[in-house]
Amino acid sequence: MTTSSRMTYAFARDGGLPFSRFFARVHPKLDVPLESLALTNLVVLIFGLIFLGSSSAFNAIVSASVVALGLSYGIPVAINCLRGRKMLPATRHFILPEWFGWFANLLGVSYVLLTTVLFVFPPGLPVTGSSMNYCIVAFGIVLMISMIQWFVDGRKNFTGPKVELDDHVLTAVESPVNVRAASTGQRQLDNEKAAESAR
Description:
Elements: H1 2-13, H2 20-23, H3 34-53, H4 55-82, H5 98-120, H6 135-157, E1 163-166, E2 169-172, H7 179-183, H8 191-198
Antiparallel strand pairs: 1-2
């Protein structure tokens, strides 16, 4: 709950959720994102009820989350390969030999593709309505909801984490959030703290 509610809060703070201003609030006395915590509890409760109602629907949701996690790792690696591994900074701390870097990246993309296909296969033959793997349906529903959210609200309000482009590397910049400002849905950047932490 602690991790999920903070991730929900952070995503809402960056404008990535519906009703972001509501879920980005932090309780001024408790210093906890209560609305995000309530949303996380509600989602867990809904998943529990889905499991009680239909184990195949619950398994489809879990499989879809595994597929989504794999794709979230595979897409940046695939983009890196398609760009010829030229976006990697020359001054990085860990450098593989060129051939081994290509091998590791291509192996990773191949593994993601293989596991994605395997996770959407039905568990056995013949495929019937009760033995069907509904992972692709659950993944498609989440994808459609995400696309609708993006076009309705996200592209106007989603800012993403604050980053700096330095030598083709995105380095996270600390952006402290004022608790009172977050509780009203507004973000304030403390420039003095950011300047001190950058030194």
